[in-house]
Amino acid sequence: MFTFKGKLKASPNDIYNTLLEQMILDIEDKTQKKIKVSQLEKGFKYKYKKKNNYITVEVLKTIPNKKITTIYNQGENRWELTYEIDAIDKEWSRLLYIQNDGLEEIKGIKSLLSNMELNKRFNKLEAHIKSTLSNA
Asked: What DSSP line would sit under 99-119, residue for residue?
């Protein structure tokens, strides 16, 4: 399991909406299909090809302004990503990123690469949230 906790000067609503927008952009880029925010609820699935493998992504849970959980399946590998958002005060929120992925079962370099990719992904997401909020 990998977790990252960050503090952002934004409301839970702004962070939640930015996460949904990022998900839509990612899905549309990988599937070449247009989707709406209203489709991103429990049970929504999409599939895309990465190198020689297919990855299936399913939205497991959405709680507006609080939580988004998705499950990724690639062959026999399965991992779950969760974003939890909590208000600290009127100006600040806490964003918790959790990845449960059975890294205990993946040995050696795959584990290291997964963590490096995860760090890169979170940093990109954090920069996007800050950019979106500063442009609002």
From this structure: EE--TTTS-THHHHHHHHHHH
